[in-house]
Amino acid sequence: MTTIVQKFGGTSVGDVQKIKRVAERIKERMDRGEKVVTVVSAMGKSTDALVDLANDITDNPDPREMDMLLATGEQVTISLVVMALKEIGVDAVSLTGWQAGIITEENHQDARITDIRTDKMQKHLNDGKAVLVAGFQGVSEDGNITTLGRGGSDTTAVALAAALDAESCSIYTDVTGVYTADPRFVKKARQLASISYDEMLELANLGAGVLHPRAVEFAKNYNVTLVVRSSMEEVEGTYVEEEASMEQNLVVRGLAFEKNITKVTVERLPDQFDTMSNLFTLLADANINVDIIIQQMTSDHGINVSFSIDSSNLGKTLDLIHREKASLCYSEIRHESSLAKVSIVGSGMISNPGVAANMFKVLASEQVAIKMVSTSEIAVSAVVPEEDMIRASEALHTSFELDAKEKEKIEAAKA
Amino acid sequence: MTTIVQKFGGTSVGDVQKIKRVAERIKERMDRGEKVVTVVSAMGKSTDALVDLANDITDNPDPREMDMLLATGEQVTISLVVMALKEIGVDAVSLTGWQAGIITEENHQDARITDIRTDKMQKHLNDGKAVLVAGFQGVSEDGNITTLGRGGSDTTAVALAAALDAESCSIYTDVTGVYTADPRFVKKARQLASISYDEMLELANLGAGVLHPRAVEFAKNYNVTLVVRSSMEEVEGTYVEEEASMEQNLVVRGLAFEKNITKVTVERLPDQFDTMSNLFTLLADANINVDIIIQQMTSDHGINVSFSIDSSNLGKTLDLIHREKASLCYSEIRHESSLAKVSIVGSGMISNPGVAANMFKVLASEQVAIKMVSTSEIAVSAVVPEEDMIRASEALHTSFELDAKEKEKIEAAKA
């Protein structure tokens, strides 16, 4: 008998009607004779409401207690889904993280799963019950409730799929699958039938937002077949698996873009071994996420360093670096905001030199200024002016042959 | 070092400001060098909101899943109180029912506590932490989350006090203590310095509502000193303990009253061994709570049975009895609504014959019709017309010497 794991996110369980629909979806799988484990998130904005409560009490909530607080959100959802299942005649049982045997590190708010003790789940599955598991949470060996941090419910689902040796792990979202680009902006975007873990990982990291990178990494490590599909309509989703079978001839599989990027340049730092380490440790300690980093020597043996950050962190970043002017020993700091990052992704790049050059050519022909560049084995990213982001993406989408055919365009428009 | 247990109900933790006040109260006790375990309920109306969600999904929610759902309410409160404590410099830790080692039967929605494994609590207390425990909930030996039913948080607090061998268990409410009668209605009501378990039990059962009878019974069985006190102001509360010391000379310690009572009379039932059993099993199976029962023989060897119920159950009761007319074999069914029950309570009654007669005398002099009577060792109750309830209570309050002196009246008015 096949075991499958599926996950429904916060918007898919946002109200009672949607919860009933999720119950129907589970029933369909049960009716096929499958063993079904379903992971759910907290309902819609309920986590935000809990965070607001905590913030009304303190600016600096204790991490253990935040986990205690936030874990209630998913617990509410699992119980309601089971009630909805029983209402339509499906036997089911809900399990919190600790009841499902999801053991994590003690690291509150961002705990990693260390073990999954599946006996209780297996017993319920063997009894013919649908099993509902609270996403995003676990328990430490000491018996403290923990949460997994961002993308936690996706990670829960993938980890359960690995532990239960499930046939697949379906991630239900509000889109029908993974697209060559965000269809809300790139009109010719096309849904992919399949994509490899590495490509998905680049796209996830690059802000495509359908799947959390951590969950994709987990799936890759344990070779879990992921399926991204719509919780609203019954259409084929996108398979994320070891080798994307369908479209291997494509060099570029998709593209991603994100706004609100600021480039910061620190000029004439001293040419010392610890210059880079001092600067970026400073930022890391303040939890400022740095993306692209460029280091250049000046003619007089100084170092110019540029890096990109989310624009929301600009004030904090400038304050920090100004405050450390004496110890960092730089001459000047400059910044440029209203930038965006456009990236192309595809595992075919490894064996296809010149992809980056092609990308630059396209951007040049569109008269888009390139502010920064970064490359990995399967991705090339360019930081460009925010106002050019969509135009650049559409041009890249077309020139790398990602555009949908007419029929596909209609489907993309529906999504 | 003294260990104390205290409990704050839903209104005492109804919003963020009140939660901060509870944290201050806990800090005061910690500052005295006491080991403090605090049990809290769900915030204000949050349990109602959860019940509404369940009712939107099904008319008949699964009991296990209701427990899973409702247990989140207290979990939210404990985490917020700990955050508030840490904000004012008090080290603290929150524990759910299962984390606090509260083991119950598997009987969902109304589970009884079977064991309390205190090692985790003791460890945290020894580490100098304030311990916050989620009221109303526990865990079965099978690892299922259970709830204790009505009055559950009071019961949690008393059970923890017994298990931890605490000096006392304070129940913080929105009144300053236990009164001779409900001060909202009986103007001369007076707060009691102390009251015995049995008297409190009668008052609790009679609807005085300050403490749940189950918690009082638990306290009596384990000889836990209960203190009922105000969460709003720092005044002496009422001690509930084995022998109420201060006012032993009083025959009547307090009185209780409740409205919305209906008397139902079933006429001319057959005089058979199983007549009473058939009738009341019928009602019990439908979860209709019957209070006073009176059985009378008719001159022609039939039986007339009268009983009192909450008026909200009248329709259901009449339907049931009508439907079973053939099997029950009665001639007629009558009912009288808009009634109330007035009760006087005092352990001094056992050694004072004539208390009931005195009560009837007072009611007669006030021209209050007595519809039904019931007596126990330490209480006498009379069912009277609802419109006479307050007048009858005030007359009884005065004639049994319960009235407050002037100074006490002012305090009662403040409450």
UniProtKB/TrEMBL annotation, chains A, B:
Keyword Acetylation listed: no
Pfam family, one: ACT_9
MF annotations from Gene Ontology: aspartate kinase activity; ATP binding
Superkingdom, taxonomy of origin: Bacteria
GO biological process: diaminopimelate biosynthetic process; homoserine biosynthetic process; lysine biosynthetic process via diaminopimelate; threonine biosynthetic process
Entry annotated with the keyword Disulfide bond: no
Keywords: Amino-acid biosynthesis, ATP-binding, Diaminopimelate biosynthesis, Kinase, Lysine biosynthesis, Nucleotide-binding, Repeat, Transferase
Pathway the protein acts in: Amino-acid biosynthesis; L-lysine biosynthesis via DAP pathway; (S)-tetrahydrodipicolinate from L-aspartate: step 1/4; Amino-acid biosynthesis; L-methionine biosynthesis via de novo pathway; L-homoserine from L-aspartate: step 1/3; Amino-acid biosynthesis; L-threonine biosynthesis; L-threonine from L-aspartate: step 1/5
Reactions the enzyme catalyzes: L-aspartate + ATP = 4-phospho-L-aspartate + ADP
Positions bound to substrate: 47, 74
GO cellular component, one term: cytosol
Stored CDD domains: AAK_AKii-LysC-BS, ACT_AK-LysC-DapG-like_2, ACT_AKii-LysC-BS-like_1
Enzyme Commission number(s) from the entry: 2.7.2.4
UniProt domain ACT: residue ranges: 264-347
Binding annotation for ATP: 7-10, 173-174, 179, 184
Assembly, per entry: Tetramer consisting of 2 isoforms Alpha (catalytic and regulation) and of a homodimer of 2 isoforms Beta (regulation).
NCBIfam families, per the entry: asp_kin_monofn, asp_kinases, PRK06635.1-2, PRK06635.1-4, PRK06635.1-5
Protein function: Catalyzes the phosphorylation of the beta-carboxyl group of aspartic acid with ATP to yield 4-phospho-L-aspartate, which is involved in the branched biosynthetic pathway leading to the biosynthesis of amino acids threonine, isoleucine and methionine.
Family recorded in the similarity comment: Belongs to the aspartokinase family.
The protein, known as: Aspartokinase
Organism (species): Paenalkalicoccus suaedae
Phylogenetic placement of the source organism: Bacteria, Bacillati, Bacillota, Bacilli, Bacillales
